[in-house]
Amino acid sequence: MRTFVSATATVLAVLLAAVAGPAIWLDRNIAQEEGFVELAGPLGSNSEFQQQLATAAIGTIDTSAVPGFLAGLVQPVLADAAASLTGLPGYPAAWEEALRRSHRLSFATQGTDDGGAASASSVTLDVAPLVALGAEEISRATGLPLDPPDQTLINVGQPEHKEWTERLATYAPAGYLLAGGSAVAMLLALVAARRRSAVLAGAGVAALLLAAIWTLGAGIASAAAGSADSGNEVANMFRDEFVAASAADFQAWTVAAAVTGGALLVLGLVAGLTTRKRARATR
Questions:
Q1: Domain boundaries, the chain
Q2: In this structure, are residues 156 and 4 in contact, taking their beta carbons and an 8 Å threshold?
Q3: Which pLDDT score, from 0 to 100, does residue 115 have?
Q4: How far is CA 262 from each of CA 62, 65, 167, 185, 267, rounded to the nearest angstrom?
């Protein structure tokens, strides 16, 4: 009976851990604003993406209020602003604020107001802070007042992807409960086991398998996310860079699972050999 309880608890612990790991990662790095900003922040160092984003942001600035005879002066300034935007001192803060606004839009519930802006109908980038920074630079260079918009939205995905973010925000936090359940089940398995070394070794093998499954699943998820064409070159580039950053970050979790599994396997094997030697010595 003890062996059956131990085996069942071990299997349960592994199954719960298999779901808990990715869920906790998704909650920390995607669903939570701070994690999302930290994960997407380094995209600001991709010069090609940031230059295209700057050009797109500057291109949305409304210059209709500029007198026609000054149009020839404004256009070169717009081009210069797009080229120099990423080098401005305020750019890092504007990029971070753009990420925060984008997260609030994409993860806000439909029909609600979050952070002063209505929820978007799809996964969306709000680059208004970058537009405001560019408008300020253009106004400084030309002396012409420009009124940047409160929102400048770039759709990164389709409406169905918005549903995914809502489900993610709802269910991902359950990963912590699942992790707790996994720990309790593993503790029960160790308490009930006749040979704890076997439980440790089995848990180690299971962790190694989980690492392999997570790696395979991450690859499939990355391919699926990368195949979603938004129809916007800047949005597609953000998607590609963000998916790559996410895959690299999650890989650290799979490596940690593999290392933990290897350690448990070795510990279980050593403990088993030690127990056998003691048993032989007492005969």
A1: 2-29+165-281, 46-159
A2: no
A3: 45
A4: 59, 67, 34, 20, 9
